Amino acid sequence: MLKEFFIAFIISIDIYLAAAACCNSDIRIPLSSAFIIDIFSTAVMFASLSLSDLISVYITSGTCHRIGTAVLIALGAVNITKSIVRNFIRRISDRGGFSLKMGGASIFVKLYLDDTAADMDSSKILSASEAAVLAVAGSLDAAASGLGCGCTDISAPIASIFTFICGAAALMFGSLTGRKISSLRHDLSWAGGLLLILFAIFSA
Question: What's this model's pTM, rounded to 2 decimal places?
């Protein structure tokens, strides 16, 4: 059960940071929108874990472990890279030497650089549709993590329950502590990436 909790906790880090960013920008996340984000992440985790279990039936255990470990390490590296890119852009922007114009960019590109881009109508309230877009963008980590956990003893139902609980807690604490976290002026998504890599290594 420890592995299920750990993978759910790692996934919830990005949810927490997104909620914190919204809080710092005075974007309110209504309960219905929070539920959409949380339940979508939970559903994706369950589906990806179930799919990885199904795939593992058709390939050898060793191959499955190697593929899963590679997927988790790659995802961790992507999250660390994303954090580096965000911090670099933020540092240059704060110095007044860079102006990021994303008017014609995809919403998913915008969300990659800034979680508050989910508030597409600038209403300062995250609507159900905007929450769904944020959930889709944020669930990629859950999908990749679930697929990367193939051939392990991780239970899909238990991991999904922990994902829902950790996601709800992340949204609540992110909304409460967003200003303090965001005042650090550093993107902390690298922490989730590092934990994923460590999880992959020690679970191999």
Answer: 0.81
